[in-house]
Design brief:
By secondary structure, the chain is α/β, with parallel strands linked by helices. The chain has nine helices and ten strands. The protein has helices at residues 19-29, 43-52, 72-84, 107-123, 136-146, 162-171, 186-193, 227-237, 242-256; strands spanning 3-5, 30-35, 57-59, 93-97, 128-131, 153-155, 174-178, 200-202, 261-262, 265-266. Helix 3 (72-84) runs parallel beside helix 4 (107-123) and helix 5 runs parallel beside helix 6. The longest helix has 17 residues, at 107-123. It is globular.
Length: 268
């Protein structure tokens, strides 16, 4: 059974040399790939990739927290113009969130940007895709403060504690995005073992964070086909089959992305 990669940057320049081969490998093991935007420079390459296989690639629109800099207000105006453009369909708002790993000095404006993305997610009735590096509690705080029936989404690349996972699950309409780090980090494995599969979606975050056994590849690059390693590790941790992981996590992805039609099934 094929999987769904809910978070991949296959439009990255890191795939310029062999993008067609990477896509072919992805299509062997996946039903769909969701493409979160990161900045204004990435939009056109993301949309071009989507146009090459519109039933396989599903784009999203947002501004990554690491790209929230001076003058970000104008950047957000451009992001909203893309969201308002009737020529393109977007399936989520993001990648957005908070990042306290690279630059703590921009936290205040990161929060302003995140709040704007939360407001967009509600007004456009789209799920929000949340980056939370070194800022999981801060992002959960903002989501809890804004929680209602209109707000849903994914805590991307979740590597937090069981307590943090329980806070996310208690919000009610959010899933935990589990990627390649679960194949090698024991702390993440122990937490994921205790999270019900019904609260998990699969992802790669390619070209970043390659899973075992590809962490030492040269060049060091992740790709969407490697979702299969994440699925296999979850099957091991939950003492179930790969196909069962695929069935449950695919259903979760369809729930998160109600506007997507994947493999003949409508989300919702």
């Amino acid at each position: 059974m094929k999987l769904i990669d809910t978070h991949s940057h296959l439009y990255s320049r890191k795939f310029d040399r062999d993008q067609e081969e990477v896509i072919a490998r992805a299509q062997e093991v996946l039903e769909a790939v969701f493409l979160p935007n990161i900045d204004l420079e990435s939009v056109e390459s993301m949309l071009a990739l989507t146009a090459s296989a519109p039933e396989f690639f599903f784009p999203m629109m947002g501004l990554h927290p690491c790209d929230v800099k001076e003058g970000f207000e104008q950047t957000l105006e451009h992001v909203q113009a893309y969201l308002d453009n009737p020529d393109h369909t977007y399936y989520g708002v993001g990648e957005t969130g908070l990042d306290l790993y690279w630059d703590k000095t921009t936290l205040d404006i990161q929060k302003i940007s995140l709040q704007q993305h939360i407001d967009w997610a509600k007004s456009y009735e789209l799920p929000i895709i949340l980056h939370t590096r070194n800022a999981t509690d801060e992002v959960i705080d903002m989501i809890e403060a804004n929680a209602d029936d209109q707000l849903s989404g994914i805590f991307h690349c979740f590597d937090g504690s069981l307590g943090q996972a329980q806070r996310v699950m208690a919000v009610g309409q959010f899933k935990l995005g589990i990627g390649g780090i679960v194949t090698y980090r024991k702390d993440v494995q122990e937490v994921v073992r205790q999270i019900p599969l019904e609260s998990i979606v699969l992802e790669t975050d390619s070209p970043y964070l390659p899973p075992a056994p590809h962490r030492k590849d040269k060049p060091r690059r992740n790709e969407s086909s490697y979702t299969k390693y994440v699925g296999a590790k979850l099957a091991e941790l939950h003492n179930t089959t790969y196909d069962e992981v695929a069935r449950i996590t695919n259903a979760n992805a369809l729930q998160v992305f109600p506007k997507a039609r994947i493999g003949g099934k409508q989300g919702g």
